[in-house]
Description:
Catalyzes the condensation of carbamoyl phosphate and aspartate to form carbamoyl aspartate and inorganic phosphate, the committed step in the de novo pyrimidine nucleotide biosynthesis pathway. The protein is of the alpha/beta class and 319 residues long.
Amino acid sequence: MFRARHLLGIEPLAPAEITTLLDLAETYVDLNRRTVKHSDALAGMTQINMFFENSTRTQSSFELAGKRLGADVMNMSMQNSSVKKGETLIDTAMTLNAMHPDLLVVRHPQSGAVDLLAQKVNCAVLNAGDGRHEHPTQALLDGLTIRRAKGRLHRLTVAICGDIAHSRVARSNLFLLGKMENRLRLVGPATLMPAGARDWGCEVYEDMREGLKGADVVMMLRLQKERMDGGFIPSEREYYHRWGLDAEKLALAAPDAIVMHPGPMNRGVEIDGTIADDINRSVIQDQVEMGVAVRMAAMDLLARNLRAERGAKASEMMA
């Protein structure tokens, strides 16, 4: 069961839809490990990637996912686009409609911009991150990584640590992990904790050691300096001392706790490099691998719904 026309966020998805997508992603993990990695799920379809913010992991992952599914993939260089010349987002949507794409992957610095585009185009839209709002495929790939590592995606204690206030990754993970009935903890300095965080059904800790006690999953977040306009932290050295993940703090988590990070990492600021590279605890490279499979599954499911919708409209016109 997956009825969505677009993938704009985790918040609108039902738990069953999340499970459907992750189950399909499992099959794409297997496909991606084969010598021949191609499918024809998107054969004949056009995918346009529009990244108004710089991205390496997410854009390359979506591009690879589309190509492995057989789509014609185009990357639009938004840094040099008409938007820079004053074109509005609505005008951009009208231009895109004229190209008849089937799938549109969008990253934008403004919260809600991707939703606005989705209202104006005649194709399926995937949110690759919008402002501080959501980053749904990151949460889905995190969910798949946790499920594969722990054998389940429910009744786990998950500590999300660091720059919560500026993180769309944290927001999407809170929605996803909350829907799947996990115990959630937010850990970080008060300056990087959103107002009202205690009303989200989470436990909030300013003390990293208290927040990590008994945790099954330790999810570190990047310090998003590009979104900061003031003194949110005393210094990187002090931040690492109090909220960076090192062996001493990790020892307080469950003995089989896994360590995650969405990347890119600031080693020695958010996480000790030795822990990041520890194949027994860190699943950071698994997250990268799961990203391609999850994005393949998301585009496959949206494409199925799009074909069904177009087929129904064609039948109506012929009736």
